[in-house]
Amino acid sequence: MSAKIKRQMLFIFCGGGKILDSLLEIDNLRTQFFTSGGTVMAVDGVSYDVQEGETVAVVGESGCGKSVTALSIMRLIPDPPGKTVGGRIRFMGKDLLSLDDESMRQIRGRNIAMVFQEPMTSLNPVLTIGRQISETLETHLGISEEEQQKRAEELLDMVGIADGKRRLKQYPHHLSGGMRQRVMIALALACEPKLIIADEPTTALDVTIQAQILELMKDLTHRLGVALIVITHNLGVVARYANKVNVMYAGKIVEKGTAHQVYYNPRHPYTLGLLSSVPRMDQARGQKLVPIFGQPPDLTRLGVECAFRPRCRFAIDRCSREIPPLENFADGQQAACWRMHEIDDLKKETL
Asked: CA 226, 113, 248 angle in degrees (round to 5)?
């Protein structure tokens, strides 16, 4: 079956009966870093799609390729040492990898926005909050200074920052971490993009503020119809906020499905390990957490075995000889494991 026919089968019908293609399609994306120690296979054949208004989570440990995938979408990979060497990224029908720099700059910030991990380093410390928002509005919308001021105040109000006129005159260091992250969300929403990529949006925030920021993003994206990619290692985010989930390990997607499928019926041992190593509200009394032993692999030395095999409780001889492909399990759920159909029985044996 051709890729075109597959995409047609993934079309969705909106309320008026109009047929829509995916907003974003990533197909076999490969991004590498060329270092003195070897070629780092940071993103190795990643494919997934995002529909309009949908929230998609990308989950995994640090170093698995989550953020590099996001930076590849934004065309922000530093070259050298990094380079996207293969695959395709289609956004609103355009192949982002084939656009010239100026065309990509017009899309970045206007149609696709990004909320970075650490707002203190993402915001310019020598410019006021108002100036930073105004720059975005001026660059992409070309509106007057009066309109910029009005829009900036509206944005701060939208993200829950009171007394916007005064806050716009302040600098990032005047604001708390939670308020800085709200400013980052306001910047992302400034030009009414179709897609927002949030890269660990609650890093370095306390638990209460994390919940507030996540609820804010959920509410705004739902109300405004904006698609959202959430990059996280927090599986609580997966269960509560995402429609679909992609689990990454060693530069590859090892499992994908709906949030309910991945959270309640994991098919890959790595996904199971992530879920077993964090506390859950539905966890049985006295049930112990089970850590994932070992370390992630060296991405310059990936061989012909399953990258997770050295850390896997269920590995067999075949895992050391062949890399399992991402295959269908049921109802759209996919996993890259030779034993995905046995996982339920294997879990019982190890309890």
From this structure: 85
| DSSP-assigned letter for residue 333 | E
- Contact call for residues 340 and 347 (beta carbons, < 8 A): no
The upper half-sphere exposure of residue 192, i.e. CA atoms within 13 Å in the direction of its Cβ, equals: 6
| pLDDT tens, position by position, 291-307 | 888 999 999 999 899 99
Between CA 268 and CA 335 the distance in angstroms is 6
Helices (H), the chain: 3-9, 66-73, 101-107, 119-122, 129-141, 145-158, 164-167, 177-189, 207-224, 235-241, 259-264, 269-276, 343-350
Exposed/middle/buried for residue 177 (C-beta within 10 Å: 0-12, 13-18, 19+): middle
d(C-alpha 142, C-alpha 122), whole Å: 23
Question: What is the bridge-based pairing of β-strands 12-13 and 327-330?
Answer: unpaired
Contact 262, 271 (CB under 8 A): yes
DSSP assignment of 255-279 equals EEEEHHHHHHS--SHHHHHHHHTS-
pLDDT band at residue 189 under the 50/70/90 scheme = very high
For the entire predicted model, the pTM comes to: 0.88
* φ and ψ at residue 28, rounded to 5 degrees: 55, 45
Give the three-class secondary structure for 66.
helix
Q: Is 269:313 a contact under the CB 8 Å cutoff?
A: yes
User: Cα separation of 96 and 111, whole Å?
Assistant: 12
Structure tokens that stand for 95 in this block: 């192949």
| pLDDT tens string 124-156 | 999 999 999 999 999 888 888 999 999 999 999
The H or E element containing residue 56 is: strand 55-59
Measured between alpha carbons, how far is 175 from 165 in angstroms, rounded to an integer? 14
Q: Is-cis flag, bond preceding 325, omega within 30?
A: no
